[in-house]
Please model this.
Amino acid sequence: MDVGPLPQLVVSGILTGLLFALISVGLTLIFGVMDVVNFAHGEFLMLAMYATFGATLIGINPILAVPVVAIVMFFLGAVVYRVLIRRLLAGPPSAVVFGTFGLLVFLQGAAQYLFTSDYRSIPNLPFQGTLHFGAVNLGEAQLVAGLGALLMTALVFAFVEYTEPGRALRALSEDRVAAQLMGIDVQGMNALAFGLGIACVGAAGALLMLTYQAYPRIGTEFALTAFVVVALGGFGSVQGALVGALLVGLVEVLGGFYISPALKMIPVYLLYLLVVLVRPQGLLGRR
Amino acid sequence: MTVRAHLIALGIVALTLTALALGYHNAFILNLVFAGLIFAVLGQSWNWISGYAGQISFGHALFFGCGAYASALFAARHGSPWLALPAGAAVAAILALLVGFPCFALRGHYFSIATIAVAAIAEIAATNLAALGKANGFEMPILAPGIATLQFSDKGHYVLVALALFVFAQLATLGLERSRLGFYLRAIRLNQEAAASVGVDARAAKLTTYAACGALAALAGSLYAQQALYVGPEDTLGLPISIAIALVGVVGGLSTVWGPALGALVYVALARYGGALLGGQGHGLDLLLYGGLILVIVSWRPDGLAGIGRSIRRALERREARAAP
Model:
């Protein structure tokens, strides 16, 4: 049986999905621990992309830039939590939504003002070759980005699952009051979770620079997909974000090929609407 | 504020803007006032469902675009804009019912993301459907100016038309606050289960409100199209428009009669006027300032400008009480 380009599309969809997964795990981690939907998530992705671009300009290898940018973004996230998010959590629930939207507008404006609207890409991009596996052709850059995202996602998962601070994070997302009674430092853990979430999206941004260009509005594009992924998988569920991201990656690539590239997001949004209408808490979310 | 105070304030605003529209001929300023009024109406429409009823929508551009496209389609076929207004409003209300009927089963962020998804589908559809002008949108034909065509050579007349819609939206909100539906909505926002247990039909109340929101936002969209004479998918259905509408609703203060108007004033003054003064839009300084202001307001007073107003009024009352013997 001739399956045509299907294997190629599936591999491509999975690699795309792995990047979505890393972005979405950051978003869902922040939500799970402190009930905050970070609407500025995409803007942190954009900042990380510019940071990677800057790092390569001063001669840092783009692969080496990934951990460097992730660590810088971790501290940026922790500072944003201390300065802004902590204040918002003291207000009504709407304050968090609008505070993070304000941050989105602010960061996008800042990027447009400082970096202009021009597209920036890494000079002398590495990994320009193509690998052939039977019927499947893979761009090296795409493969490196996908595998890098998989590695980072696995690291974060291992941290949350097997370390002491990771256990404290999980305890907080299960029952905040009980966790506090057990002596868990809520503010410190919130800052850690926010930092980790931003580090994830930061690493994703650095990896994306291998295949994409940076411009001030790129964040919104990816963030929109990440919201759909997180809600599809169930807010707060790391496993759900993984499943959701792979599904969305596959649907996007297959839809783009079999329907039309211009309409590729329609099946993704329809998938979200269908899933939540059947399961209002998402695939793996808790009620 | 008492109803009397609200009506007096509305009268003062209406008279001032009417005088401005008729006596002041700076097209740049009049266009800003027009944009401010349109956003005040959009913010108010958003405030009904997201403020009073607490169902945060990030897809309000769907209804705005519906009205704008109705105007454009009628104009392209030489129909009267006076038919486009009710037609756009009716289509938007029906769309609101179609979206709301399944989606009001969703809670919190799941609902908000669903509204984004629906508006995004509409934007993609409009960008790709030949009947809706694809990505280029519609240039509307320029007709003989006058009330029949809703096109004016004097920018002030557009302000008057938008002002009429704004006054209507404010009066409707005052009515809503004091109606049974208004009480239902606030009960639903505070605790839907508790509201249902005392016999509030939550879904019916939300659907009615959402349909009304859709119709109001569509009317604003139609007027916007009549003034801009161009309708495109990004300008009317895009996520940035939905976000701008939601921000206007919240900067001023949720579930208040004057919050959206205050929010629209800040939005237009900072993001539009400030942007133009600082070297035009597109440089990002306008967004930087507007975003920065939102951050300052929301971290200082999470309930928005109206909350700051309340604090000031309370402080004044306290001083008066102390001054009285």
Summary: The first helix of chain B runs from residue 3 to 23. Chain B touches chain A through 44 residues (CB under 8 Å). The CA atoms of residues 40 and 264 of chain B lie 5 Å apart.
